[in-house]
Amino acid sequence: MIHAGVYYAPGSLKAKFCKAGVAATLAFCRENDIPFQQCGKLLVATTPLEVERMQVLYKRCHDNGIDVQLLDAAQLKAEEPNIVGLGAILVNDTAIVDYRLVTTRMAERFQALGGHIRLSHEVVALEETSEYVRATAKYNGQRVTFDGEFLIACSGLMADRTTRMLGIETDFQIIPFRGEYYQLPEKYNDVVKHLIYPIPDPDLPFLGVHLTRMIDGTVTVGPNAVQGWKREGYGRFNFSFRDVADMVRFGGFWRVLKSISAPVWWKRKILCGNPAILNWCRSIARKSA
Questions:
Q1: In whole angstroms, what is the distance from residue 118 CA to residue 122 CA?
Q2: How many CA atoms lie within 13 Å of 75's alpha carbon, on the beta-carbon side?
Q3: How many Å apart are CA 85 and CA 71, to the nearest integer?
């Protein structure tokens, strides 16, 4: 998905980078003949409280210069007959694309310019001097080093470890959660025309369960948010002693658990997503049967 930057604080770097990133990504797709669809996204309010939050979010979109429309219940019904709500924000800039194809083309362009790609190299040390930046990695049991004038670190799940390798004071730690998506049967591929999202709950660090149209025509439902026991654990069962040890030693992890200590709340809100949204997804399936 190519996000428009709906949720970010106006004037923040996230808001600026996301808006610029939309334009740059679409331009890259056009230049490289990569298929994409600017299908738009609907943020649907289903309760009076969500309508209030929707109004705040709508103003934020305008402050960020995002192309949006505010829809009432009737307009929402006209846009999406299978979706029921009190209103919605239509985000016209949101698009979908096959990011595997995007990254493949990026890699090809990088290599054509003389770049080298080294896969399966685990970075174990970083050193910065006034003359160079050195990265030390493990590959096939051997240590290899790479020197460069600059280092761009896009380390994601390892961001905290990367900063510590460079001796940067680090006041955050990655706590892994895994989101799982489920694909609807093929007969539901036309159940929606847009991406369908709930109005987010500001008390939760997740956007909620949503319906996502994929570039291949399928539709997925998700994600939930399951506590991960391995940072790079993408299978159903994953465990890393190092990752778990780092997690349980981090005070922030226990503060998160304390804030959501009620088991039923944890099960329904975090592990399974918002139950109202899950029922809403089931109702879509029933209406399309």
A1: 10
A2: 11
A3: 10
CA angle centred on 75, ends 73 and 77, rounded to 5°: 70
The pLDDT of 79-105, averaged and rounded, is 96
* Whole-structure pTM value: 0.83
Query: Per-residue pLDDT tens for 129-170?
Result: 999 999 999 999 999 999 999 999 999 999 999 999 999 999
| Bridge partner list, 91 | 41, 68
Helix (H, G, I), strand (E, B) or coil at 180: coil
pLDDT digits (tens, 9 = 90+) for 243-264: 999 999 999 998 887 776 544 3
Q: Which of 202, 74, 219 is nearest to 210 (CA)?
A: 219
275 pLDDT above the threshold of 50: no
Cβ burial, residue 171 (10 Å; 0-12/13-18/19+)? exposed
Cis peptide before 223 (omega within 30 of 0): yes
* CA–CA–CA angle 69, 274, 4 (5° rounding): 30
Judged against a pLDDT cut of 50, whether residue 289 lies above it is answered with no
Close Cβ partners of 244 (under 8 Å, ≥ 6 residues apart): 229, 230
What is d(CA 289, CA 249) in angstroms, rounded to the nearest whole number? 49
Integer Rg of the chain from CA: 22
Whose tokens are 């998905």? That residue is 1
Whole-number Cα distances in Å, 154 to 36, 162, 226, 234, 251: 24, 9, 24, 19, 25
